[in-house]
């Protein structure tokens, strides 16, 4: 999740100078000034964010030779799903910016995918020479999966049939391990996997039937989360002073969602807002499958 934080910081740096104009006024043909501007801004933001990350975070930890670390079993893969989500969002964002320059759609999607893989791999290279962590092949695998999910849909169909989304709530568990799960609203949002849910949102009917009476903006959404996990390795956590114990388990959700980008409008500023809203899953009732039981959540976010 730490990598997701810096990914979002990178997105902010990359977007502040050009993103509003990029979505509002896309070029009909290749605009070399825009192409150079987007590329230069992207390179500067990449180098600047990685440098800032090194001096703010990595330089204070003991260094080691390049080594790998298998963390695929930790947090019941919630952080891996986060990698997939981040890579998909990042690839799409950069691909959209290059399409704004007037570059061919397929070339833009390839550049977006390349930036996504390259930027996310940079974090692994920093981890690889840190004594506390290491180069994670599972991280790379989920980064690749998220990037390929973006690129394949964009390259072959020029449309994202499946969107990755995020939702979060206060699990109430951070109080027992605030140093790990967070001690403020912002830190809990980013560090407490128990309160996070990642979604795959899609409209299967629109894939096969263009004139369906079901609106294209109404999606089904499959969600994944965990609960009661206070230890990375998934062991039972005991709070002796309160005679409490927490045994982690997985949660699977089925819910409805809104694909804002499928809502028709000719206003580019509104399309930009819809594009931003599509990062997040809309709260709806949900079916939950966990611990071998099927339950119902009247309102889940």
Could you name the key traits of this structure?
301 residues, alpha+beta, 6-stranded antiparallel β-sheet, 47% helix
Number of strands: 8
- Alpha-carbon distance between the two ends: 19 Å
Record the strand order, biggest sheet. Answer: 1-2-3-6-7-8
The class by helix and strand makeup works out as: alpha+beta
3D shape: globular
Counting DSSP H or I runs of 4 or more residues, the number of helices is 10
Any chance you could write out the topology, listing elements then pairs?
Layout: H1 2-16, H2 19-24, H3 32-56, H4 78-100, H5 105-128, H6 137-157, E1 163-168, H7 178-181, H8 185-191, E2 196-202, H9 204-208, E3 218-227, E4 237-239, E5 244-246, E6 249-258, H10 268-277, E7 284-290, E8 293-300
Antiparallel strand pairs: 1-2, 2-3, 3-6, 4-5, 6-7, 7-8
Helix pairs in contact: 1-3, 1-4, 4-5, 4-6, 5-6
What does this structure look like?
This protein has 301 residues and is of the alpha+beta class. It has two domains: 1-160, no CATH class; 165-301, no CATH class. It has ten helices and eight strands. It has helices at 2-16, 19-24, 32-56, 78-100, 105-128, 137-157, 178-181, 185-191, 204-208, 268-277; strands at residues 163-168, 196-202, 218-227, 237-239, 244-246, 249-258, 284-290, 293-300. It is globular, with a radius of gyration of 20 Å. The two termini are 19 Å apart.
């Amino acid at each position: 999740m730490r990598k997701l934080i810096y990914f979002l910081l990178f997105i902010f740096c990359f977007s502040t100078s050009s993103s509003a104009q990029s979505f509002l006024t896309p070029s009909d043909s290749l605009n070399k000034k825009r192409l150079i501007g987007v590329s230069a801004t992207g390179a500067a933001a990449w180098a600047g964010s990685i440098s800032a990350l090194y001096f703010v975070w990595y330089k204070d930890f003991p260094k080691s030779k390049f080594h790998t670390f298998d963390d695929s079993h930790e947090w019941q893969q919630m952080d891996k799903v986060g990698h997939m989500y981040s890579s998909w969002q990042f690839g799409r964002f950069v691909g959209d910016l290059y399409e704004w320059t007037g570059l061919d759609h397929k070339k833009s999607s390839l550049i977006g995918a390349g930036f996504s893989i390259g930027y996310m791999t940079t974090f692994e290279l920093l981890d690889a020479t840190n004594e506390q962590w290491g180069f994670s092949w599972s991280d790379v695998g989920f980064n690749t999966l998220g990037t390929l999910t973006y690129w394949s849909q964009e390259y072959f169909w020029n449309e994202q049939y499946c969107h990755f989304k995020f939702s979060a709530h206060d699990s109430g568990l951070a109080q027992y391990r605030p140093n790990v799960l967070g001690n403020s609203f912002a830190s809990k949002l980013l560090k407490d996997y128990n309160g996070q849910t990642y979604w795959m949102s899609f409209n299967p009917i629109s894939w096969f039937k263009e004139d369906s009476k079901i609106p294209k903006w109404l999606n089904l959404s499959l969600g994944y989360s965990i609960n009661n996990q206070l230890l990375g390795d998934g062991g039972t956590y005991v709070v002796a002073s309160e005679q409490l114990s927490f045994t982690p388990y997985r949660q699977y959700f089925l819910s409805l969602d809104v694909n804002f980008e499928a809502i028709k409008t000719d206003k580019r500023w509104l399309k930009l807002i819809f594009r931003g809203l599509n990062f997040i899953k809309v709260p709806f009732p949900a079916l939950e499958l966990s611990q071998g039981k099927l339950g119902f959540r009247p309102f889940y976010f």
